[in-house]
């Protein structure tokens, strides 16, 4: 084991107070900072091979070439989508104007025909009562409202014309292969090269994407759901109409009905805001880079199907990585009909490429670099003393004041940080993985702390299956946010996970919000949209996580832990971690 003074040199390399880097792409350290004239992922890959930073691999080169072809089409596609959104905005504006005009004409005709002649004498007060949410609107009941809505939509089609056609999008890529073969690396090279070219783009790991879907659903429900509807206020354009109050009442009721219809299709509504850069007024093409796509439960299948289908139908270019081919994602056949439709659409819009390499390049890089100076084992007195020295050294570097903190998570939840110091935090394994927490908590920690100390990591078997699954999720998020991890453990990395002979791991991370009323209801709404019973979800999750699935997860976590010890990874911390991009 290295001396503390030698270890600190590596830490200073990763943690030097360098807030000079301002680019915020989520990518590994082999992705050079974006430049005004990006050369593309194949050029970046070739340069890294020439520099000796990467070992040439024909499988990786094939995928890099596919990314280069996609990259070459994006600039023209961006311009096409910019023009399309201008036409779409004009079409939507004209359609809304005509829709309002038709509703006023329809309401006035009903009044002329005496439709409301039998209305109560106090009918003129109903509008005000409805505004306060105390009385249901006097609108056509049942099928009548639906027929009225459809007839109005048909008239609008004939008056305004059909929706502008979306330009044909370049085919995205779905890359699958073994752990450490370079899937994420190549996707990140592609994502980095599109900076400045594509305005609306996002890169998510599976956990982060599912949490964003939950968050957006929650927000949409709060803004448009039943609670809001019960206190719905009539739009100002209706209140300002120079017409009878009964006409206003009918129009407001039709607007309310339209809103109810939209609430029944929450996933398309969420998808429409999923990738939009709220800071950019101008609209254009959109790219979604999705790392480690998987289908762990019924909710994931329904939500991903609804969100992805909408994005692909509206011109989004999808790039995804996975350990499995698309048709092998759902081996237990959960919600087969919905899954098959989703996969058929994915295959239509993406080129499916396998990286056939059996080499785990993270391990290759680790063998050619320094010892695992941040992963200390076994759990004896010498290691514990070394761990404490490293903690004191790093915190002294940042002023030495140790404080506790509370981080916001989601839906009003928080996570407590017992010990922290200016971007550095310390936990025990039991504190992070022995309690019912999940990806949302780990993302909050990973975003706020560039260096994480975790002590007393045990060897994990099926006897502590829930803790093992949480630890795997934790490693995923620390890696995705490019954190520096310092840890003390019972065994070497390759012996940390003790196999799957005793049964399957139960993925508690998938249930991290099940105790939250808001999210439980949102999950039920989404399942209902897909005509699915939520009651069967837990058993489906247990069945889904077979021994083979766990071996993938174990191998990925071990591979990432090894890479996180290398100088190449540590060099990227100061450039890539969100902490170093916060406003001063």
UniProtKB/TrEMBL annotation:
Keyword match Transport: no
Statement: the UniProt record of this protein carries the keyword Transport: no
Signal peptide (residue range): none
InterPro entries named in the record: ATPase_AFG1-like, P-loop_NTPase
Alphabetically ordered keywords of this record: ATP-binding, Coiled coil, Nucleotide-binding
Pfam families for the chain: AFG1_ATPase
Ranges in coiled-coil conformation: 74-113
PANTHER family: AFG1-LIKE ATPASE, ATPASE N2B
Protein family membership: Belongs to the AFG1 ATPase family.
NCBIfam families hit by this protein: ZapE
Protein name as annotated: AAA+ ATPase domain-containing protein
Source lineage: Eukaryota, Viridiplantae, Streptophyta, Embryophyta, Tracheophyta
Gene: A09p069030.1_BraROA
């Amino acid at each position: 084991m290295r001396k503390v003074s030698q270890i600190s040199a590596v830490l200073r390399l990763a943690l030097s107070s360098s807030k000079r880097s301002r680019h915020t792409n989520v990518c590994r350290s082999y992705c050079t900072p974006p430049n005004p004239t990006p050369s593309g992922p194949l050029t970046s890959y070739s340069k890294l091979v020439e520099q000796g930073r990467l070992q040439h691999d024909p499988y990786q080169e094939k995928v890099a070439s596919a990314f280069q072809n996609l990259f070459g089409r994006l600039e023209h596609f961006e311009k096409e989508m910019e023009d399309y959104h201008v036409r779409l905005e004009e079409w939507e504006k004209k359609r809304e104007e005509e829709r309002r005009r038709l509703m006023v004409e329809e309401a006035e005709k009903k009044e002329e025909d005496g439709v409301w002649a039998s209305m109560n004498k106090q009918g003129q007060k109903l509008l005000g009562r409805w505004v306060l949410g105390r009385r249901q609107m006097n609108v056509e009941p049942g099928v009548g409202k639906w027929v009225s809505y459809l007839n109005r939509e048909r008239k609008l089609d004939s008056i305004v014309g059909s929706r502008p056609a979306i330009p044909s999008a370049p085919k995205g890529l779905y890359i699958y292969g073994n752990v450490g073969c370079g899937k994420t690396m190549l996707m990140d090279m592609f994502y980095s090269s599109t900076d400045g070219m594509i305005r609306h783009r996002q890169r998510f790991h599976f956990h982060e994407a599912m949490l964003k879907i939950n968050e957006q659903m929650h927000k949409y429900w709060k803004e448009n759901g039943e609670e809001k509807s019960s206190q719905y206020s009539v739009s100002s354009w209706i209140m300002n109409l120079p017409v009878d109050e009964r006409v206003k009442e009918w129009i407001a009721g039709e607007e309310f009905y339209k809103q109810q219809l939209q609430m029944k299709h929450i996933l398309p509504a969420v998808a429409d805001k999923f990738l939009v850069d709220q800071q950019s007024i101008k609209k254009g093409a959109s790219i979604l880079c999705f790392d480690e796509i998987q289908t762990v439960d019924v909710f994931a299948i329904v939500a991903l199907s609804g969100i992805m289908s909408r994005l692909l139908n509206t011109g989004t270019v999808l790039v995804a990585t996975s350990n499995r081919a698309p048709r092998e994602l759902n081996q237990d056949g959960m919600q087969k009909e919905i899954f098959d439709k989703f996969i058929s659409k994915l295959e239509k819009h993406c080129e499916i490429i396998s990286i056939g390499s059996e080499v785990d390049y993270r391990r290759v890089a680790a063998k050619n670099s320094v010892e695992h100076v941040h992963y200390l084992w076994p759990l004896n007195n010498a290691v514990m003393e070394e761990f404490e020295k490293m903690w004191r050294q790093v915190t002294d570097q940042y002023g030495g004041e140790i404080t506790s903190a509370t981080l916001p998570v989601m839906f009003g939840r928080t996570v407590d940080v017992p010990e922290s110091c200016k971007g550095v935090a310390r936990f025990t394994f039991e504190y992070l993985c022995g309690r019912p927490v999940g990806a949302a908590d780990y993302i909050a920690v990973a975003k706020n702390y560039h260096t994480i100390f975790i002590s007393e990591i045990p060897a994990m078997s099926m006897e502590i299956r829930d803790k093992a699954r949480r630890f795997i999720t934790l490693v995923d998020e620390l890696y995705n946010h490019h954190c520096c991890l310092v840890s003390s453990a019972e065994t070497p990395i390759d012996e940390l996970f003790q196999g799957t002979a005793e049964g399957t791991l139960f993925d508690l991370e998938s249930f991290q919000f099940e105790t939250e009323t808001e999210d439980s209801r949102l999950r039920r709404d989404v399942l209902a949209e897909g005509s699915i019973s939520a009651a069967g979800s837990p058993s489906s999750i247990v069945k889904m996580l077979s021994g083979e699935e766990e071996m993938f997860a174990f191998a990925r976590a071990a591979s990432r832990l090894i890479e996180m010890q290398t100088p190449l990874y540590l060099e990227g911390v100061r450039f890539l971690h969100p902490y170093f991009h916060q406003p001063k």
